[in-house]
C-alpha cells in the first residue's frame, strides 16, 4: 500500500512539474507574442499565410492556381491565401475584420489608419530584426522607412510607386479634326485648354455626325493627388496639392480662397456652356476612364502603359486614333503642374498578434521578394510560362503574361522604389517611351509639401475628412451655379471653425519638428 501511495505521490509530482513546464512554455509563447521578437522560421513546418492585397482596375486579381502562388508555397513551405479586396471597400473591410479580431497576416493600410493603429499592438515592429533581412531593408530609403513611425519603431513597410507617373493624355486625331495644333510645352495656357475643351464638346471631334462627346470629364474629387482630371487645373491657379509651403508656413488649399474662386470660376464657365460633363459630381475615376476608352471624351490623366494600351484599344474602333502627352496648362501667374503623390505614406504591415514563427516566415518571403531574384520573378513571372527566349536571347511575352499579370502582387501589396512597368520582355523603344514620359512629368511636379506628415496631427485625423467632404459639397454647388462664388468665403470660415485652424497649427508644428531632423523629400 505504501508503494502504491509512493507511486501516486511521484506521479503527482511529475504531473505538477509537467504542468509547471507547460505554464512556463505558454508564458514564453505569450511573452513572445507580446514583445513580437521574430525568430528565423523553421521551414520544416508548413503554415497557412493570409495576405490581403488591394484589387483595382475592375477587380483584377490572380487565379487560385497561379504559378507564382505555387512557387511561393513550394519555396517557403506555406499555403498562401490571397484575400483580394476591391479598393473602394478595402478600408471598411479592414475595420470590420479588426473589430472581429480576424485581420489577415499581412495587409495594407492608408496613412490615417497606420497612425491610429500603430500604438495598439496591431502591427509587428520590424525595427529590432531588420538587419537580418538586408534585401528588404535596402529596398527603401531610410526616410521612407521612418516616415510616420514613432522614433525607433518600424511598424510598416513603405508602399511606393512612380513619383511622376500621371499626366494629361489627349486624342491627337481629335485635335486634327477640329483644326487645333498639338500644344507647345512653353506657351500652353488655360485659354488654350479652354479652346480644346470647347472644340471637343461642340465640333464633332470623332466625326460621327452626332453630338455625343464631352469637352472635359472630371471626377467629384476636387483636391488631392488621386487622378481626377482636374488636378492640373488646380495647379494652374496656384492651389495647394493638399498643402503648400508659402513663406515658411504650410497652407491648406481650403484657406486659399482667392485661388479657389478662380479655379471654380473656370469650371463654372465650362459647366454653364455645356463643355463640362453635367454628371461630374456623381463620377469616380473608373467611370471617366471608361468614357475615355470608349471615345466619349478625349482627355484623361493617367500613366504611360495605359497610354500605349489605350491607343491600341481606341484604334480597334477608330483606326486613326492617336494619343499624345499633353503638358499641364499655364495659369495666370505662371503656375502649372502634374499631381505628384508623397512616397511611402501608405504601408504594408504584418499582423502583430500572429505567432512569431509565422511573422518570421513572412519576413523571409519579403526579403526574398525584394532580392534581385525575387523582384525579377514577382515582376516578370517565369521563363517558359510568361515569356520565352528567342534565338537571339531576347525575351518575348506569352499570352499568359497578360492574363496572369505576374507583377500584380508587387504593385498592389509590396512595391519598392519606382513601380516601373517595364518588364524583361518590354521592347527597348517602349522602355525609352516610359522614361521620356516620366521625365516630362518630373519637370512639372505638383507636390504635397507636407510630404504625408499631416496625418500625424490628431486634429487632422479627427476633422479633416469631414471638413473636406463639407467643403467639396459647396465646391460642386458653385460649379453648377447653385451657389454664388462668394459661398467659398463662408466655406473657408466653416472649415476654420470646424477644426481647420487647429489642423493648420498642428501640421505646421509637426512639419517644423520633422523637417529639421530629416532629409526626406516628397519625390522619393
UniProtKB/TrEMBL annotation:
* Keyword Mitochondrion tagged: no
UniProt KW keywords: Cell membrane, Lipoprotein, Membrane, Palmitate, Signal
The record's section on Pfam families has: SBP_bac_8 (PF13416)
Disordered as annotated region, ranges: 324-347
List the InterPro entries.
Bact_solute-bd_prot1, SBP
Keyword Membrane included in the entry's annotation: yes
Per UniProt, the ranges with Polar residues bias are: 338-347
The name this protein carries in UniProt is Extracellular solute-binding protein
- Whose protein is this, by species? Cohnella boryungensis
List the top taxonomic levels of the source. Bacteria, Bacillati, Bacillota, Bacilli, Bacillales
Amino acid at each position: 500500500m505504501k508503494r502504491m501511495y509512493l507511486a501516486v505521490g511521484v506521479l503527482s509530482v511529475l504531473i505538477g512539474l509537467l504542468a509547471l513546464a507547460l505554464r512556463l512554455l505558454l508564458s514564453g509563447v505569450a511573452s513572445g507574442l507580446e514583445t513580437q521578437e521574430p525568430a528565423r522560421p523553421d521551414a520544416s513546418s508548413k503554415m497557412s499565410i493570409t495576405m490581403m492585397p488591394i484589387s483595382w482596375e475592375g477587380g483584377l486579381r490572380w487565379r487560385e492556381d497561379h504559378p507564382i502562388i505555387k512557387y511561393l508555397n513550394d519555396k517557403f513551405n506555406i499555403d498562401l491565401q490571397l484575400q483580394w479586396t476591391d479598393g473602394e471597400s478595402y478600408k471598411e473591410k479592414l475595420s470590420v475584420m479588426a473589430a472581429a479580431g480576424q485581420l489577415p497576416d499581412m495587409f495594407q493600410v492608408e496613412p490615417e489608419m497606420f497612425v491610429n493603429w500603430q500604438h495598439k499592438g496591431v502591427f509587428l515592429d520590424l525595427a529590432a530584426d531588420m538587419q537580418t533581412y538586408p534585401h528588404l531593408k535596402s529596398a527603401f530609403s531610410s526616410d521612407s522607412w521612418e516616415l510616420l513611425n514613432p522614433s525607433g519603431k518600424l511598424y510598416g513597410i513603405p508602399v511606393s510607386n512612380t513619383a511622376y507617373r500621371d499626366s494629361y493624355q489627349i486624342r491627337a486625331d481629335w485635335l486634327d479634326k477640329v483644326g487645333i495644333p498639338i500644344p507647345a510645352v512653353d506657351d500652353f495656357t488655360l485659354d488654350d485648354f479652354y479652346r480644346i475643351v470647347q472644340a471637343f464638346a461642340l465640333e464633332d471631334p470623332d466625326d460621327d455626325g452626332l453630338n455625343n462627346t464631352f469637352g472635359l470629364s472630371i471626377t467629384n474629387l476636387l483636391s488631392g493627388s488621386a487622378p481626377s482630371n482636374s488636378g492640373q487645373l488646380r495647379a494652374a491657379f496656384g492651389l495647394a496639392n493638399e498643402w503648400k509651403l508659402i513663406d515658411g508656413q504650410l497652407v491648406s488649399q481650403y484657406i486659399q480662397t482667392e485661388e479657389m474662386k478662380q479655379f471654380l470660376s473656370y469650371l463654372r464657365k465650362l459647366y454653364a456652356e455645356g463643355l463640362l460633363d453635367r454628371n461630374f459630381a456623381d463620377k469616380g475615376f473608373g467611370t471617366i476612364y471608361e468614357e475615355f476608352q470608349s471615345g466619349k471624351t478625349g482627355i484623361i490623366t493617367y500613366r504611360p502603359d495605359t497610354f500605349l494600351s489605350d491607343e491600341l484599344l481606341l484604334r480597334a474602333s477608330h483606326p486613326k486614333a492617336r494619343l499624345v502627352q499633353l503638358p499641364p496648362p499655364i495659369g495666370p501667374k505662371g503656375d502649372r503642374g502634374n499631381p505628384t503623390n508623397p512616397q511611402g505614406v501608405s504601408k504594408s504591415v504584418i499582423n502583430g498578434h500572429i505567432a512569431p514563427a509565422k511573422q518570421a516566415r513572412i519576413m523571409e518571403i519579403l526579403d526574398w521578394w525584394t532580392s534581385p531574384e525575387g523582384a525579377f520573378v514577382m515582376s516578370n513571372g517565369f521563363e517558359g510560362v510568361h515569356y520565352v527566349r528567342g534565338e537571339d536571347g531576347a525575351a518575348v511575352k506569352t499570352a499568359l503574361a497578360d492574363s496572369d499579370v505576374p507583377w500584380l502582387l508587387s504593385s498592389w501589396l509590396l512595391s519598392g522604389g519606382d513601380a516601373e512597368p517595364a518588364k524583361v520582355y518590354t521592347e527597348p523603344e517602349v522602355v525609352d517611351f516610359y522614361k521620356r514620359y516620366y521625365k516630362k512629368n518630373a519637370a512639372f511636379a505638383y507636390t504635397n509639401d507636407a510630404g504625408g506628415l499631416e496625418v500625424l496631427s490628431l486634429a487632422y485625423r479627427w476633422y479633416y475628412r469631414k471638413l473636406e467632404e463639407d467643403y467639396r459639397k459647396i465646391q460642386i454647388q458653385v460649379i453648377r451655379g447653385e451657389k454664388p462664388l462668394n459661398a467659398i468665403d463662408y466655406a473657408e470660415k466653416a472649415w476654420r471653425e470646424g477644426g481647420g485652424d487647429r489642423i493648420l497649427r498642428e501640421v505646421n508644428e509637426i512639419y517644423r519638428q520633422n523637417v529639421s531632423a530629416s532629409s526626406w523629400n516628397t519625390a522619393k
